[in-house]
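CO-FOLDING WORKSHEET

Operator: S.A.
Ligand of interest: guanosine-5'-triphosphate
Run index: 191
Mode: holo prediction, single chain
Checklist:
[x] sequence pasted
[x] SMILES validated
[ ] output reviewed
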Amino acid sequence: MFIKSAEFVKGITGTNEILLDGRPQIAFVGRSNVGKSSLINSLVGRKDLARSSSKPGKTQEVNFFLINNGYYFVDLPGYGFAKVSPKRKEKIRKMIVWYLSYAESRPKKVVLVVDSKAGAKKFDVDMKDLLREENLDFFVVANKIDKLRKNEEKTKIKEIMGKLGMDDSSIVSFSSKTLKNREKIIKKIFD
Ligand SMILES: Nc1nc2c(ncn2[C@@H]2O[C@H](COP(=O)(O)OP(=O)(O)OP(=O)(O)O)[C@@H](O)[C@H]2O)c(=O)[nH]1
Ligand SMILES: [Mg+2]
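OUTPUT RECEIVED:
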């Protein structure tokens, strides 16, 4: 699979006709600041398609990017940024749950992005449970692998998958800095 075109279509916060246009959706979910938007940019080979920021809480809506005119990459807001109000946090949590569980369509694949240095947190475990309950097809990206020393990688990955109760075949490490495993992730998304 070669990504030859990518464009931002729209951001939604609830029911919208884009959910029903029949194109398969690939969703990127994870805690705030783990690098979901950067991962999308790396996959499509564009620096600023999905807006990313060093300030957590950049993505506020469910953003749809049209890929090769046939798919959507769906960039979800991140959960768990400490500085947002409890009310705002709850709103974001509900938006994520709505998209994954109650929206008119279901994503064909979900990429659960985890910060490889911080490891799997409660949100990640809860998310894995939700994805399982909803019977959604998903795999884990251990992101920001450039922040780990080479000899830490294996242990960290084992630790993350242990916490999630999953086996090592469902995790791929990645870094937007080095683009390590970019092709592998694209393959996993589209197979
Ligand atoms: N070292 C390193 N930094 C990264 C990597 N990916 C993203 N970042 C940085 O992490 C910060 C957050 O990246 P985003 O892509 O905005 O994260 P996000 O998950 O979309 O964040 P929200 O929209 O707030 O949920 C930015 O400063 C990025 O430059 C990576 O692979 N390695
Ligand atoms: Mg984002």
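REVIEW:
The first strand starts at residue 6 and ends at 12.
The chain has a mean pLDDT of 94.
[x] output reviewed
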